[in-house]
Design a protein that fits this description.
four-stranded antiparallel sheet, globular, Jelly Rolls
């Protein structure tokens, strides 16, 4: 499994020295479905690279509502930058949706890279920023119907792996609205 992680790092422009540094502090972990990696309100001690499976992060309200923040699947980094930078509790929950194999790295490693303005940190930050900008554009510029259509086009594998409730939460709509959108698309 570490070979796959090492190859992903190479493919993403990490040099052999950076890869060695990452592997020195990395730990391989396997998790069952619905395992909580980070509770909302807990301070993160790890960041993750997802080798196999799917994870989900969500904001939970006092009124029992859940708002989907993000889904993560193979070859995704899972990092809570807000918690890292402010050194505070996570504003969201992180859980596995399927059995998962992840590489875990101590958050202190990332903090050290941040202080040194290390190239690894900058690469991770840039990747996260691009994801955030794409998600923002997705949510602001498109109607719910267009978001569903784009989601299906860009993530056909996820459409098969997620249930309608999860897809609706990611799209920022209710599952009832998603059901209506799907019915209109079929006619």
């Amino acid at each position: 499994m570490f070979k796959h992680f090492q190859q992903q790092l190479t493919d993403n422009g990490f040099n052999p020295n950076e890869i060695e540094q990452l592997l020195d502090s990395a730990q391989l972990i396997e998790l069952p479905t619905r395992h909580i990696l980070l509770h909302q309100g807990q301070v993160a001690e790890e960041l993750f690279f997802l080798l196999e499976g799917m994870c989900h992060s969500a904001y939970l309200t006092d009124k029992g509502k859940e708002f989907s923040k993000e889904f993560y699947w193979e070859n995704d980094w899972i990092i809570g930058f807000e918690s890292l930078i402010k050194q505070q509790a996570s504003p969201y929950l992180l859980e596995s949706l399927t059995p998962c194999t992840l590489v875990s790295l101590p958050v202190e490693t990332l903090r050290g890279w941040r202080e040194q303005k290390h190239s690894i940190y900058l690469k991770l930050l840039e990747t996260q920023l691009m994801y955030k900008e794409n998600k923002e554009r997705f949510m602001l510029l498109y109607s719910p119907e267009e978001r569903y259509e784009l989601f299906c086009q860009h993530y056909p594998d996820l459409v098969k792996r997620l249930n309608d409730y999860q897809i609706a939460a990611y799209l920022g709509i209710t599952s009832i609205s998603l059901s209506r959108i799907k019915k209109r698309a079929q006619s």
